[in-house]
């Protein structure tokens, strides 16, 4: 039964990802990295991700003529900035930004951990968590660094420092949520084995990413309140 439900939700996630990706191609985001982030969000938010994208992130069509719109200050090259979003939505999008990097890192790290049989202190689970954190942190900081450089804020060095300041807490919070869920799910649903070749593992990871998003949201709220990170 787990396998059946796993395939249902994994396929729904892939379909949501593909649907968002197709729409983003017609409606490019103001920040290029969000063209990748939004489809990734669909992977761990099956169906719901499409509603979230439509509600909080969808830009105007690329061919849209902004001269016929009110509030030209909110448009640039036909891309809506969504600067009028409520704060909770801006923080939500900031959390998806963090989640995109973390999720991509985990997607890369999990098959490596399984293929290499990587362990830490003799534990395959701990080895998986270590590789996942390293990859997630690298991709997460990259996802933060690229928009900072895109906006031309400072030198590459200062952009990297700002990216680390802005996303480290959020990334750690996301990973904590993921790890907590996998610590529960692995013995309960996966017979104690984290095997990235099985659909059940990826279904549990899909849930773990959603839990990670929930634990990262308060961290993003705090970072925005402190002025360390901007609501998106």
Automatic annotation (TrEMBL):
InterPro entries: DUF4396. Residues 63-85 are annotated as: Disordered. This is DUF4396 domain-containing protein. Residues 63-77 have a biased composition (Basic and acidic residues). Keywords: Membrane, Transmembrane, Transmembrane helix. Residues 88-229 form the DUF4396 domain. The lineage of its organism: Bacteria, Pseudomonadati, Pseudomonadota, Gammaproteobacteria, Oceanospirillales. It comes from the Bacteria. The chain crosses the membrane at residues 6-24, 36-53, 126-148, 169-190, 202-224.
